[in-house]
Design a protein that fits this description.
Blueprint lengths: L1 H4 L3 H21 L5 H19 L2 H24 L4 H19 L4 E3 L14 H22 L2 H7 L5 H6 L4 H27 L1 E3 L6 H24 L7 H5 L1 H13 L7 H26 L17 H22 L1
Antiparallel strand pairs: 1-2
Helix pairs in contact: 2-6, 2-9, 2-10, 2-13, 3-4, 3-5, 3-9, 4-5, 4-9, 6-13, 10-12, 10-13, 10-14, 13-14
């Protein structure tokens, strides 16, 4: 079973890196940005194109930048009073033309696998690289939240009246958040393309549901932990006083992971949960597609065509748990 899980670890972590970018937008701008589908696709195509002309590091950086450019385009459309979700859809639709411009037949290949620092088959070094990138991005967001630009970003979560009348930099914050969020997604596309040694215009349609599912799943896990460790409070009986140290530790931990607050560690914890959530959904999808669950028990012989139905079921469960917990707070 473990061997069957290996092929999906690196792709899951790569999607997890992209989920960090989408979560940055979704958590603070409060809308799902469909332009990320163009960013992950175009990031991969441009990365392969530039890598074939230069080297994979420059190709990766260019994939990062092209994603950011799409984010700026969406920000400009939003500034032009186009609804946010529609602005992302427009940018995503337009990105197809750029994709076919760089990949004439809709697909572009990396002719020499030595030009990639990632492997097409499972390699522990690739896992370490992806984990390092994910942790670095989580740390950068953790650092950002403690700065003045971070406080301006946090202010975007305030009510609409405050944003309209008091947030003087709202437009700039939207554009910059869309730039960095889509740039991270473009980086994800570049890494995926280097691993696959190819990039396709018609690709990554599962990225948005997987990433949003990971965000809902990460929130549900964080809320669950918070409720468990806060259950019962700090009593006054003699027996409870003997357990004060343990309860203080659990309360401290639960406050650190509270989804409703945006302390720097909370953000780091949540965003890394999103990475793990993407890894989980990718593993489930891949194992169902490979018909691997039957090795555990014959009753788990799930038909391969139910691959995305199973994933959709997990996403629905995550959304239900997260919504139910929030209502009970």
């Amino acid at each position: 079973m473990i061997e069957r899980m290996q092929p999906f670890i690196v792709p899951g972590l790569i999607y997890g890196i992209g989920a960090i970018g989408l979560a940055l937008i979704y958590r603070y701008l409060r809308f799902p940005d469909f332009s990320v589908l163009g960013s992950i696709m175009l990031g991969g195509i441009v990365c392969i194109k530039v890598t074939n002309l230069t080297n994979p590091l420059l190709g990766t950086f260019t994939g990062f930048l092209i994603g950011g450019v799409l984010g700026i385009a969406t920000g400009i459309l939003i500034h032009s009073r186009i609804p946010k979700v529609l602005a992302g859809i427009i940018t995503f639709t337009a990105s197809y033309s750029l994709g076919y411009f760089f990949a004439k037949e809709g697909t572009i290949f990396l002719p020499n696998d030595s030009n990639s620092y990632l492997h097409s088959t499972f390699n522990p070094k690739d896992v370490l690289i992806m984990l390092a990138v994910a942790l670095l991005l989580c740390y950068l967001i953790h650092f950002l939240i403690k700065t003045k630009p971070g406080s301006l970003l946090l202010a975007m979560t305030a009510n609409k009246k405050f944003r309209k009348s008091r947030h003087r930099y709202k437009g700039k914050v939207i554009v910059m958040t869309l730039f960095f969020g889509n740039a991270i997604v473009g980086l994800s596309g570049a890494l995926y393309a280097l691993r696959e040694q190819a990039a396709h215009v018609q690709s990554h349609m599962d990225f948005l549901p997987f990433s949003l599912g990971a965000i809902f799943g990460g929130n549900a896990v964080a809320i669950g932990f918070y409720r468990i460790f806060n259950k019962g409070g700090m009593g006054n009986s003699t027996e409870e006083k003997r357990q004060t140290n343990f309860k203080c530790f659990f309360q401290l931990f639960s406050n650190l992971i509270s989804i409703e607050q945006d302390g720097s560690f909370r953000v780091w914890f949540l965003f890394f949960l999103y990475v793990l959530g993407c890894l989980f959904l990718q593993e489930v999808s891949g194992l169902v597609h490979a018909n691997a669950f039957k090795t555990i028990h014959p009753i788990l012989n799930i038909p391969t065509y139910l691959q995305y139905l199973v994933v959709a079921g997990f996403i629905a469960f995550f959304a239900w748990v997260g919504g139910r917990e929030e209502e009970e707070e």
